[in-house]
Amino acid sequence: MEKRENFGRYIKEKRKEAGLSQKELAKQLFVSESAVSKWERGVSQTKRY
Q: Which GO terms describe its molecular function (predicted)?
């Protein structure tokens, strides 16, 4: 659980440093805005290939 929270904090921090909204980041990554929100909250992470 802690790794998810750390990942979420990292994503949020970098997104804000870049001056992007969740919607703008999602568009650049070709994912939904809800995916970015879930990552930041530690609810979901990217698939590991």
A: DNA binding
